[in-house]
Amino acid sequence: MEMGFSWVCSILIGVGLFALRWILSNVNSWIHESKLGEKQYLLPPGDMGWPLIGNMWSFLRAFKSSDPDSFINSFVSRFGRTGIYKAFMFGRPSVIVTRPDTCKRVLTDDDAFRPGWPASTERLMGRKSFLLIPFEEHKRLRKITAAPVNGHEALSVYMKYIEENVKSTLGKWSTMGEIEFLTELRRLTFRVIMHIFLSEEEEHVVRNLEKEYTAFNGGIRAMAINLPGFAYHKALKARKNLVARFQEVVNERRKRRLENQPIVKKDMMDLLVDVEDEKGRRLDDEEIIDVLLMYLNAGHESSGHITMWATILLQEHPKIFRKAKEEQEKIVKNRPPTQEGLTLEEYRQMEYLSKVVDETLRLINISLVVFRTAQTDVKMNGYLIPKGWRVLAWFRQVHMDPDNYPDPKEFDPSRWDGPPPKAGMFIPFGGGSHLCPGNDLAKLEIAIFLHYFLLGYKVERRNPECPLRYLPHPRPKDNCLARIIKVKNP
Fold it and tell me: According to the lineage, what is the superkingdom (predicted)?
């Protein structure tokens, strides 16, 4: 009798737990889909996760594991290869798009989609950041800042400074013993970008600003918990300090102009203060500062990580290393005897090295996703994206899908030997009107470093099998502890 009663209780408890789980897993759907009426039946397949947290727990669990792609793969295995899935991400009902055609549409259709980053990211990046401003304002800012950042004349000027710093820094590293290769690379790229923007040379000033920027960047993809000890709280404090420092510089540059003081050496800050559009409108202080923060990310954070990974991947693939090195040696051999240093023309001759960089960008996926918001109801691949829902263009899945790239986990620059990939297949810098504005400068930095590394150095890692962290960017947990060794060429 008692055993029978216990058995019945166990069944009831099991049924109750199952029912509770079912209710909790459907709460978000009931709240957000029921508002759509009949439209809810046109939503793409997927699930909305748990109340409040949605799918964030499974997202963070996947990206803290050794298999970050398991997050999207779980949608594919459960709902098929539709390339479009509903979810609840970063506090809002969302649609994730994972195929070249769907990502292309989201990135290029400015009438249907506008920037839709999480509020926490918006607060950090600033109201007038390239990431957040509407299409027309973005177009204006890109137009008036394109030449000062990525123009032929600007890149020619920056090239010499980048080259000098790379050569001296590689030599210094080779005498230092073991270093955190990634940390030192980020310091190098930060020093370069600070010189380009502010002509800042004093090492202690650059170091202090680099610390602030590291804290700032650490909060961009962190949980928006504004309490002491949390990354987001530290990032907000860092942004405040960076803005205060940049505001001091802006005030100083404007004062010089009012007093007609001569400008001995123009840097990016001077160009941003002086530049104007066809209507004679100039950038205000907030625009200048938010533009600076955006370019810092492209010219420092991304280029530092990609440079590290390209160096490691070259070192791990001797045949690819030799081919890339032969190309650089040929460039030097064909150089006029009176020429000192690299030129932009030589940089553009680095065809194989460019494929190495592109393959690194594809494989590493520094930017795994971008955020948009549907401005109207949008039909896509037979499904509905409701107005106001967030849309996540999942770059990582595009680059790691074997349908797009055979053996996607293999580092293979030769996959770029054929015609360029179709639109939407290669999107490391985004696309459309919101294409990353600093991509040319970042790729130039990477190529100059690899040129000198290939010609005279090698890396010996302490922990070649070191586990990886994938947020906010993929990197070894030990920040690539290694020795940089100068080699003698035969």
Answer: Eukaryota
Q: Which domains does the chain have, with CATH numbers?
A: 1-89 (no CATH), 90-486 (1.10.630.10)
What is the chain's alpha carbon radius of gyration, rounded to the nearest angstrom?
25
Helix H, strand E, coil C: the string for 150-172 is HCHHHHHHHHHHHHHHHHHHHHH
pLDDT score recorded for residue 1? 47
SS3 408: coil
Bond from prior residue into 476 cis (ω within 30 degrees of 0): no
Question: What is the per-residue DSSP string for 11-28?
Answer: HHHHHHHHHHHHHHHHHH
Question: Token pair for residue 16?
Answer: 């109750």
Residue 135 φ/ψ, nearest 5 degrees: -55, -50
143 or 407: which carries more pLDDT confidence?
Answer: 407
- pLDDT at residue 468 tops 90: yes
The alpha-helical segments, DSSP class H, found in 259-343 are: 268-274, 285-296, 303-316, 318-333
Distance CA 144, CA 149 (A): 10
Residue type, 225: I
Neighbouring-strand partners of residue 179: 482
Q: How confident is the model at residue 293 (pLDDT cuts 50, 70, 90)?
A: confident
